[in-house]
Known about the structure:
Number of domains: 3
CATH architecture of the largest domain: Orthogonal Bundle
CATH class of the largest domain: Mainly Alpha
Strand order of the largest sheet: 3-2-1-4-5
Distance between the termini: 68 Å
Number of strands: 5
Largest sheet: 5 strands, parallel
Helix content: 40-55%
Radius of gyration: 24 Å
Amino acid sequence: MQTTVILFHQNLRVADNAPLARAAECGRVVPLFILDEANGRQPGAASRWWLREALADLQKNLSRLGTSLILRRGEMITVLRNVLQETGAQTVAWQRRYEPALATHDMGIAEALRKGGTEVFLDDGFLLFDPAAVRTGAGNPFRVFTPFARACFAAAAPTKPIAAPKVLRGVASIASETVDGLNLVPRGAAWTKGLADAWDVRESAAQDHVAAFVAEGLPHYASDRDRPDREGTSRLSPYLHFGQISPRQIWHAVQHQKAAGVAAHTAIERYLLELLWREFSWHLLQQYPELAEEALNPVFAHFPWRADQAGMKAWQRGMTGYPIVDAGMRQLWQTGWMHNRVRMVVASFLIKHLLIDWRVGDAWFWDTLVDADLGANAASWQWVAGCGADAAPYFRIFNPILQGQKFDPHGDYVRRYVPELAGLATAYIHAPWLAPVDFLAKAGIALGNTYPKPIVDHSFARKRALAALAECKGYGAPERFSP
C-alpha cells in the first residue's frame, strides 16, 4: 500500500485539496506541516496568530477523518527526509507555491527528493489560472488589469472543487510538536484578544462565510462594496490566503448564483473582478519577483521620500487627525483587517500626504494584517503609489475628508473605531476641526487633547506631493497634472 506525505502550506483545508484526495485514494496519508523559518518572507505577528488557529482547526478536521497532523520545525528538506524514513512513505505531494523565493526553493526540494527515489507531485490550488497560461495575443504576460480580466473570463473555467475525503488511513504515531509548541504567538499576548473576537478561524467558518455572502451579500455587492459602514464585503481574504477556502470554491459558488439568477449580473461580475485582482497580483509577482521591494516604474527610484518618524507613528496609531484614516488604522490594529476602500485611503495618506515610502506602509500591513499577502500587498501599495503595473497615477491624491463623506456618509464607521468623536454632529464628523467650538464642547471633544488636530493640511500636502513628483526624472512640472 502506498504511503504519501502531504505537505501543508497555504492549503490548510480538507475540502478541495487535490493532493490529500489523491493520496487518500491510493493508500495511507501522512499530513505534515513544517515551520521553516529560514526560507521566504516570514509572516507577521497577526498572520502568525491566524496560522496558529488554522493549524489547530486543521488538526481537528484531520483527526475526525482518522489521522493526525504532524507538526515539525526546521529546514524543509531535512524534515521531509526524516519523516520519509520514519514512515516508510514513497511519495510527497504539496500545493504549488508562487512566492518567487519559495517556488525556487520548492523546485530544489522536489529535485533532491526525486534524485533520492521519492515520487513528488505538485498540484495547483492557490490560484485560479496558471500564470504561464494567461497571456496577451503576442504571448506576453499582462501588465494591465482589464485585458487580463477579460482573458481570464474568456479562458476555460477553473475546474470544479472536489469534496473532502470521507476517511483517511494514517500510519503509526510519530513524533510531533504541538501547535502551541511552535511558538507562533507569544504566550499571553494581549493584542490577540481583538483578533479572536473578530474572527472564527475554521475551515467550516470559511465555507459558512461563502454561503452567507453569495446568498445575502452578493446581490448588494456592487453598491455596498465601497461602504465601510456596512457589511458589504465577503471578508474571505484571510481564509483565501491560508487556503482554508480555495479560490475555486468561491468562484463556483458565485457562478452557481449567477446560473440560478439569484444575484444581479453586475454584482457577480464585480465580485469576480476582485478575485481576479488577487490573481493579477500573483501573476505580476511571477513576472517581477522584486515587486515587494522595488517600484516597477524606475522613475520612482529618484522619488524624494521623507523620513518622518512622528508622522509614521501617528499613522500607525490612528492619530492623524483625519477621522476616516484613523478609523481604518484602528480597525486594522483591533481586528487585523481593514475595509478595502479604506486601505486605499490610508495608503494614499501615508504616501502622498506624508511622503513616506510605500514600502514602510507595506511592512506595517505585513505585520498587522491577518490576510497579509505578498502578491496583493505589493501590487496594491504600488498601485496607490502610482509606481506599479497599471497603477493609479501618482497625482491622484485622495482627499480624506471627501472620501469619508462619500463612503461613510453618516459617520457610523468613524464613530465605531474613533469613539472619542461619537458625539459629534454628522456634518463635522469627517473634519472635526471645522466644527464650531460649542459643537465640540457639547460632544466632549478638545482638539489637540482628546483627539488630535490634523498632522498636515490637505491642501499643503497635495501641493507638496505634486512638487515631489516633479522632482522625479521623466515627469514634468506639477502644472501638467490636474486633480
